Every structure is written in C-alpha cells, then in structure tokens.
C-alpha cells in the first residue's frame, strides 16, 4: 500500500467515526434535555455542564497528546509525530472554543458574570491562546524541520500547563466548581446525571479521535502534495 | 417545583456547541476533498 492509499484509508476511518459521533451527539442532547432531571438550584442552565465539561476534557486531552507527541518528535525525529501533534493541537483549539463559550454562558446566570479572572479561567484562556499561537506559527514557518522543532517546544509548554489547569481549583481560591469525576473520592453527581455526563464524555472523546484521525490524514496528504510539487520543481 | 428561569442560556450553549462541532467537521471534510 502506498503512502497516499494509506492516508486515504485513515481519512475514511476518521470520517466514518466523526460522522457516527456527530449522530451520537444528537443522542447526548436528547438524553440531556429530555431524560435527565433539572437541578433544583441552578435550573436548566446546569445542563450546560453536559457539553462544557466533556468539551474541556477533549480540549485538554488534545493538548496533552500534542505535548506527548512533541516529546516523541524531538526524541525520534519522526516527521509523522509532528504531523499528529499538529492535528491534535488544531482539534484541541476547536474544542477549546466550545469550552470557552459554554463556560461563560453558564457563568452568567449562576455567578452573575460572564467572566472572572480567576486561576482556572485565566489559565484555560492562556492555553487556548498558546495553541492558537502554535497554529499561527506553523503557518508562518516554511521549513518543515524548523517548524516541527518550534512546534514541539510550544507543544511541550502546553503539556506542562495541562496538570496545572486541573490543579488550579485546589491550589487557588477560585469560583470554578471542583472536579466531579477526576478526583480521589467517588463522583458527586446523582445516577441519572452521572450516566448522561459519562455518555457525553464518551462521545466527545471519540469525536476527538475521529477529528484527529481526519486531520492527521489531511496533514499526510498535504505533505505528499508539497513533496510532489518540490520534486516537479527540481526536475 | 419552581426552577430558575434560565433555559435560554442552556439553549444558547447547546446551539453554539453543535455549531462549532458541525462547522469544524464540514471544514475538515471539505479540506480532505480538496487535497485528494
């Protein structure tokens, strides 16, 4: 199988997975809106949590994986690691947009303000801007090796930020709620709500996998196109 | 039971989530088609 055929096969698998997960996202909406109880004190706005928390998870997972792939790139100098890292970073930025818009929409009715400059919110905005910068930088640097090296450094900086962001609610006085799932004791959520949340986490995680698979295939195909163009220019 | 009247915020958040995810999915699909 040639590299092009392999990239097409990866693209097909990613497209199918993303498509199935988009349908599954409709089921998340149906379950959250119609079959999950309304929280007594926060009212319907609490249901924002079923999209906000999984989107935040997918975004931070994406940035963590970008960082790990960046370390692997610097260690192995395998160009595919750089392409996969950049794919994960782009998908992470997309999920960050969901996280950073749904969060304030929940904050307004519950906190009485769209935004507050506390540690969790500020560090989350910072990692988003870091990876927007990562993508802009990749577009600006033409040499593939230089681009990959600079990207890897930024990716590793993002990886360092991920556990810090998770820990901000314990380290600082912050308005942001404590974790519901990722904490030492058992989840603090009633059964019906927990099932909806876990279902949404599963769908967002697989949606991340689908998107990254597609984006990685796209990066492989763009790489091949550039390589062919360079070969034509030489001959 | 009387709940706070904030359903509009919930609808806005769900619409924006679906919008971002669907637009990104379409963008990826279109870019893949273009490069093929």
3D architecture notes:
The complex is a heterodimer of chains A (235) and B (36). Chain A has helices at 3-34, 49-76, 79-111, 119-140, 144-171, 191-234. Chain A has 235 residues and is an all-alpha fold. Chain A has one domain. In chain A, α2 (49-76) packs antiparallel against α3 and α3 packs parallel to α5 (144-171). Chain A starts with a helix and ends with a helix. The mean pLDDT of chain A is 94. Chain B has one helix at residues 7-35. Helices cover 81% and strands 0% of the residues of chain B. Chain B contains one helix and no strands. Chain B is mainly alpha-helical. Classes of the chains: A mainly alpha (235), B mainly alpha (36). Chains A and B meet through α1, α2, α3 and α6 of A and α1 of B.
Q: Which characteristics define this entry?
A:
heterodimer, A: 235 residues, mainly alpha, 6 helices, 80% helix, B: 36 residues, rod-shaped
């Amino acid at each position: 199988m040639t590299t092009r055929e392999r990239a097409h096969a990866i693209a097909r698998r990613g497209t199918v997975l993303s498509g199935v997960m988009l349908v599954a996202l409709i089921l998340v909406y149906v379950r959250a809106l119609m079959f999950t109880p309304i929280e007594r004190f926060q009212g319907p706005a609490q249901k924002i949590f079923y999209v906000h928390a999984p989107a935040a998870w997918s975004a931070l997972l994406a940035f963590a994986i970008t960082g790990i792939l960046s370390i692997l790139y610097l260690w192995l100098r395998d160009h595919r690691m750089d392409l996969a890292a950049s794919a994960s970073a782009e998908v992470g930025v997309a999920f960050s947009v969901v996280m950073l818009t749904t969060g304030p929409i929940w904050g307004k009715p519950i906190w009485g303000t769209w935004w507050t400059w506390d540690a969790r919110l500020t560090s989350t905005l910072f990692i988003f801007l870091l990876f927007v910068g990562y993508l802009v930088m990749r577009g600006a640097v033409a040499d593939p090796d230089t681009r990959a090296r600079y990207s890897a450094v930024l990716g590793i900086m993002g990886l360092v930020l991920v556990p810090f962001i998770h820990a901000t609610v314990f380290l600082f006085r912050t308005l942001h709620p404590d974790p519901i799932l990722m904490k030492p004791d058992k989840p603090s959520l009633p059964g019906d709500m927990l099932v909806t949340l876990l279902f949404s986490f599963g769908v967002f995680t697989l949606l991340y996998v689908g998107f990254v698979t597609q984006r990685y295939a796209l990066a492989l195909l763009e790489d091949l196109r550039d390589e062919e163009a360079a070969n034509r220019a030489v001959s | 039971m009387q709940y706070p009247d904030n359903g509009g915020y919930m609808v806005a958040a769900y619409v924006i989530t679906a919008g971002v995810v669907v637009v990104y999915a379409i963008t990826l699909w279109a870019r893949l088609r273009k490069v093929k």
